[in-house]
Design a protein that fits this description.
476 residues; FAD/NAD(P)-binding domain; Enolase-like, domain 1; 3 domains; five-stranded parallel β-sheet; 13 helices; 22 strands
């Protein structure tokens, strides 16, 4: 039986991979996409980490836990009395699993709609071949494919703490953190990044006593300092115990739980005893089983695939995108690279602007930003002006009963071009899109200040923050 020939083969069906496959198919190419992720019944579960154990299930649990938190603590102020409030973790996890499956099935439908041939299994290079590269698919239905262009979109894996491998029962990655069967009395989290804060927030709302240990001396160092300080204050007030500047010496799992030995910021030896421990200290590029050496694919010292600005590897017609290459490990960054690569293969000029990729942390309040932070501009020595507007002065936020936080604009001192927008508050994940559009069009702060925003709306805080750059807010 002859090998199956394709114009484009995508290895990995996460956000970058499945989007790249669909866009390539739209452009007229014969496309295959390979992914080995399985659901609980052994069937295909495309969508990668994001859909299966990342962005999507974490947001489902965050939503459920926020509903519970509102019912427990905030409904009364709206005149809503709740009696006999109960918590069914199994049902909550079940809803999360349903949301995940809906997304899995949606991707399979999109493959069918766009005539992308899907292979359920692991894809690996075997050799360079006439017409491109030979890719072996191992799984329930083994196959050998040949593709003229190969797009590698194999994502990333959770980084384990040395000496504390994941068992997903007591020592948890993001995977295990999304499948805890009952609310732990005490939960430890190592790492105060996006995953640590979101998972810590879920289980804190549901009743766990949560302690987060962070090695860095500053909280959310990548976030604008003013926003980070507000976030630390608010999350601490909510009940998250944040310890910064710690040095972990030992993690020991036993029958009754996990003990973390560490030195605190002052150097004093401490012990933290918890029922479960989530480790969220970053992620590593996933090239396991890709057989990169068979074709001479170049990896860097961290195991990531080396690419140029256009996502080209050292091999002709082999591309790589998303978490497996340089740049922020964000699902939407992978999607944009996937579209850009498909268009480059078609001879078009796909483009990804790293300077306008938004970031979001889905805590409550949400944190979102795009562009430069104030501390980065100070380090560069670039003259700027800044303005902010608090949600407590926003009518819609008052009506929602969620007035925490603010919107902050940073603009060039001379040209007024928007250099960064930073938000902590309700629906920050949605509000940040206006800032992304504005920055893509090189808008000035005054441009946003002079655009009519609906009243009452949270987006008025964006307008007011832009006005604040020129020290002329109207409602504060």
């Amino acid at each position: 039986m002859s090998n199956q020939q394709f114009d484009v083969i995508v290895i990995g069906a996460g956000p970058g991979g499945y989007i790249a496959a669909i866009r390539a198919a739209q452009l007229g190419f014969k496309v295959a996409c390979i992914d080995e992720w399985k659901n609980s019944k052994g069937g295909p579960a495309p969508g990668g980490t994001c859909t299966n154990v990342g962005c999507i299930p974490s947001k489902a649990l965050l939503q459920s836990s926020e509903h519970y938190d509102h019912a427990s603590h905030h409904f009364a102020e709206h005149g809503i009395g709740v009696q006999g409030l109960s918590l069914d973790i199994a049902k909550m996890i079940g809803r999360k699993d349903t949301v995940v499956k809906q997304n899995n099935d949606g991707i399979l439908f999109l493959f069918k709609k766009n005539k992308v041939t899907f292979f359920h299994g692991r894809g690996a290079f075997t050799k360079a071949a006439d017409g491109g590269y030979e890719i072996d698919v191992t799984g329930d239905k083994p196959a050998t494919l040949v593709g003229k262009h190969i797009i590698i979109a194999t994502g990333s894996n959770a980084r384990a703490l040395p000496g504390a491998p994941f068992d997903e029962k007591q020592i948890l990655s993001n995977d295990g953190a999304l499948a805890i069967g009952e609310v732990p009395k005490k939960l430890g989290v190592i790492g105060s990044g996006v995953i640590g804060l979101e998972m810590g927030s879920v289980w804190r709302r549901l009743g766990a006593e949560v302690t987060i240990l962070e090695a860095l001396p500053t909280f959310l160092a990548a976030v604008d300092e003013q926003v980070a300080k507000e976030a630390q204050k608010v999350l601490t007030k909510q009940g998250l115990k944040l310890q910064l500047g710690v040095k972990i010496s030992e993690v020991k799992a036993g029958k009754k739980g996990v003990t973390v030995s560490y030195a605190d910021a002052a150097g004093a030896e401490q012990k933290l005893e918890v029922d479960k421990l989530i480790i969220s200290i970053g992620r590593t590029a996933n090239t396991n089983g890709l057989n990169a050496e068979a074709v001479g694919l170049k990896l860097d010292e961290r195991g990531a695939i080396v690419v140029d600005d256009d996502c080209k590897t050292n091999l002709s017609n082999v591309w790589a995108i998303g978490d497996v290459v340089r740049g922020p490990m964000l699902a939407h960054k992978a999607e944009e690279e996937g579209v850009a690569v498909a268009e480059r293969i078609a001879g078009q000029h796909g483009h990804v602007n790293f300077n306008t990729i938004p970031w979001v942390i889905y805590t409550s309040p949400e944190i979102a930003w795009v562009g430069k932070t104030e501390q980065a501009l100070k380090a560069e020595g670039r003259p700027y002006k800044a303005g902010s507007f608090p949600f407590i002065a926003n009518g819609r936020a008052r009506a929602l009963g969620d007035t925490t936080g603010f919107v902050k604009f940073i603009a060039d001192e001379k040209t007024d071009e928007i250099l960064g927008v930073h938000i902590i508050g309700p629906m920050a994940s949605e509000l940040i899109s206006e800032a992304v559009v504005a920055m893509e069009f090189k808008a000035s702060a005054e441009d946003i200040a002079r655009i009519c925003h609906a009243h009452p709306s949270l987006s008025e805080a964006t307008k007011e923050a832009a006005l604040a750059v020129d020290k002329r807010t109207l409602n504060f």
